[in-house]
Amino acid sequence: MNVIIITGASSGMGMEFAKQMDRCFSTVDEFWLIARSRDRLEKLAEELTHKAKVFAMDVTDKSSMDRLEKELQERKAVVRILINCAGYGIMGSFDRLDREQTLGMVRLNCEALTDMTYRMLPFMRKNSRIIQLASSAAFMPQPDFAVYAASKAYVHSFSRAIGAELNDRGIYVTSVCPGPVDTPFFDIAEKDGTTLAVKKMTMVQPEKVVALALRDSYYKRPVSVCSLPIKAFHAAAKAVPHGMLLKGISILKSLSILK
């Protein structure tokens, strides 16, 4: 039985991945949708033409992850695509953020993603795919977004590295690095701080990011970066010393405050 596994499937990017793949993956038997909200997952499952199995669980919980792994074993499932979308970010000065929320960000964005990837690999075969949701925040340090950016830098680096390791097995990994996307992400992220106006100006729709990510994964590309402004930022982050870029961010923040 061939399955697609999507974490964070109850909203935003995860939900969009499920909807777009539902229209074009005819050789997949089931979609396994993972998130904490059972109601939202069940609603999404009803909208899909594929058979969908709902896992209302917390991916940071070991016992829940054990049950998911056992289900794969019992069903003799082959994971054709793993899409790790579960994650969140919080903006604001590091010393003013809630400690448990900040540590939870690391546990979900980094530890849970790593654990999920580790557990799913034995169920993958040649031409399986892994799509990891990183962020353009991974390209350089982000003041007032310090832990989130660091967590996504981990995701990006981890994805590039295991992609190189798994290439000989025919398992291909794509790190998706969008800029701001029009999803409920900012409802949580801006609880204790606000993003730069210039970031909001580069906002894109999730449909565009997901379509490009799926295309880049199909062509076995290790990185997927959506929109010209974010591609330019990616190039700048590689070419310009980060110290200079951080000074530029400080200037932009000052200007936005003056407005």
What percent of the residues sit in helical stretches (DSSP H or I)? Answer: 40-55%
The major pleated sheet works out as: 7 strands, parallel
**Number of helical runs?**
10
Strand content: 5-15%
Tally of DSSP β-strands: 7
Give the integer mean of the pLDDT values: 91
SSE run: EHEHEHEHEHEHHHEHH
Given as residue ranges, the uncertain stretches (5+ residues, pLDDT < 50) are: none
Cα distance, first to last residue? 57 Å
For the biggest β-sheet, the strand order reads 3-2-1-4-5-6-7
Over all CA atoms, what is the radius of gyration?
18 Å
Structure, explained:
- This protein is α/β, with parallel strands linked by helices.
- It has ten helices and seven strands.
- It has helices spanning 12-22, 38-47, 62-75, 99-120, 146-166, 185-189, 197-201, 206-218, 228-239, 242-258, and strands spanning 2-7, 30-35, 51-56, 78-84, 129-133, 172-176, 223-224.
- The protein has a seven-stranded parallel beta sheet with strand order 3-2-1-4-5-6-7, with helices on both faces.
- Strand 5, helix 5 and strand 6 (172-176) form a beta-alpha-beta unit.
- Helix 1 packs across helix 8 and helix 4 (99-120) runs parallel beside helix 5.
- The chain is globular and about 55 Å long.
- The termini are far apart.
- The model has no long low-confidence stretch (mean pLDDT 91).
Summarize it.
The chain is α/β, with parallel strands linked by helices. The chain has helices at residues 12-22, 38-47, 62-75, 99-120, 146-166, 185-189, 197-201, 206-218, 228-239, 242-258; strands at 2-7, 30-35, 51-56, 78-84, 129-133, 172-176, 223-224.
